[in-house]
Amino acid sequence: MLNIIQNINKAFDHRIRLGIMSILMVNESADFNMLKELLGVTDGNLASHTKALELENYIQIEKQFIGKKPNTKYSATKEGRIAFASHIEALEKLIKKS
């Protein structure tokens, strides 16, 4: 018997990581403040979840200065887009089987 949850990606288990990837799939990029506001999370919480996605090579982080203020921008990598699309497909299959 096929395990119906085998293709669900553990990297997207947490709702914040799921939210980050959802935002980055429909936007070319998003900065720290945009993600923080849309997801309603703390600085530390967002930083830890973006770091986890970066370690999986699912997002790319670009740090720069705008004037004298630091700005951190995030974008989904090609690998991240493929992994997230596969994850969503697996969830859809799970829902249809239930």
Task: Give a description of the structure.
- The chain is an alpha+beta fold and 98 residues long.
- Helices cover 54% and strands 18% of the residues.
- The chain contains 4 helices and 3 strands; from the N terminus they run αβααββα.
- It has a 3-stranded antiparallel beta sheet.
- The longest helix has 20 residues, at 78-97.
- It is elongated.
- The two termini are 15 Å apart.
- The model has no long low-confidence stretch (mean pLDDT 93).
- InterPro entries: WH-like_DNA-bd_sf (IPR036388), WH_DNA-bd_dom (IPR027395), WH_DNA-bd_sf (IPR036390).
- Residues 16-95 form the Winged helix DNA-binding domain.
- This is Winged helix-turn-helix domain-containing protein.
Q: Bin the helical content.
A: 40-55%
Biggest sheet strand order reads 1-3-2
Separate helix tally: 4
Q: What string, H for helix and E for strand, traces the elements in order?
A: HEHHEEH
Distance linking N and C termini: 15 Å
Instruction: Profile the largest sheet.
Output: 3 strands, antiparallel
The pLDDT mean sits at 93
Q: How much strand content do the residues show? A: 15-25%
Short synopsis of the structure:
It comes from Flavobacterium ardleyense. The chain has helices spanning 15-26, 32-39, 43-55, 78-97, and strands spanning 30-31, 59-66, 69-76.
Task: Describe this protein with a few key phrases.
single chain; 98 residues; alpha+beta; 4 helices; 54% helix
